[in-house]
Write a structure and sequence with these properties.
Blueprint (H helix, E strand, L loop, with lengths): L9 H16 L5 H20 L4 H13 L5
Helix pairs in contact: 1-2, 1-3, 2-3
Length: about 70
Amino acid sequence: MTTVTRRWTRTALLARLRASDAIDRDTLLTPRERAECRVELFRIASDVDAGRLDSVEAEERFSRLSGLLLVA
């Protein structure tokens, strides 16, 4: 029997969406930098899904990632 645990909170999901949007809207990223940011976004999400990161830590990392990007 498999047990499913919900590790995502509403605020963590919103932070993830903001980070994804910031990556898409950043005006100064090269394609390589955009890909690196996208990989980091997926790493954070994967860590939450695997239980290596809780939603509070994920929210902080997503917010930090968003803060590094310049959105015009």
